[in-house]
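User: Please predict structures.

Assistant: First:
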Amino acid sequence: MLAEQGPYRGCPAVFKFNQFDGISMDLTTPALLFPAISLLLLAFTNRFLVTAQLIRQLHSKYETSAKDVVLRQISNLRKRIVLMRWMQVMGVSAFILCSLSMFLIFIEFQFIAKVVFGISLFLLVMALLFSLYEIAISTQAIEIEIEDLEHALGLTK
């Protein structure tokens, strides 16, 4: 059973929630996220490329000598790669849903557009939280490198 009139035109009757009635949304609302999401995706891709370069450097370091440091870095790098994958998936999904929200506004399905836009905002926040966690893990990797330098210079006890 579909709603025949009002802001819920074309929506299943189960979606008749009044909590979104006071929120106005036009095409510019989701369009505001486009630059932010694009910059985030660029930053996430840059992190991935830097991590891939680090893995290549560790591989050559492993072949020459410092096996202990490389082994300590491997689990750290695996976690970071998984987190970066999820950051990118959530960022791209947020971008797609934001675009879909704009299309839904264009064809005047306001309620569904608001729900889709809300989901895109949620995914964007989740991508940022995963990014924050990945930053914490990357600082652990730097600490491992500092410990190795201190050990090589004889600064550790």
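Second:
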Amino acid sequence: MTAENPRILLVEDEELNRTLVKAVLSRASIDAVREAEVLDASSIAAAREQLGTEDVDLVLLDMNLPDGNGLTLASELAAGTVTPGRPRPTVVAVTASVLPQDRAAALEAGCDGFLDKPYAAADLVATVADHLTRRHQPGAAGQPEAGPP
């Protein structure tokens, strides 16, 4: 991990779900997860606004939002149109739709992972930890390749 705490953007329209996710992450036994700063957005528009001004390491992206499908935002992030000039955040699709074609569509849209609802707190923490760890390894998106000593 870097010296700075990671930043997570939680894109979820249900206030109770946002509160629960923040509580689970803030109590995680893994330092990087527990110490992460969690921002939130209740819509695609609010997420775009935050991503336009905030550096974020990981986006937990609900697929069914009041102003559209989360895959739209995932595609925009993959294309670099939301965070121009900055590294693209890792995107994890969070959805109750577990059909194989929905998972494939999320990955095709640019999501880096998939978390099925409902999920156990341990699954949420493990998914976040895994993606944050991968992001901060040399050679990961936005990170320099490890060179010779």
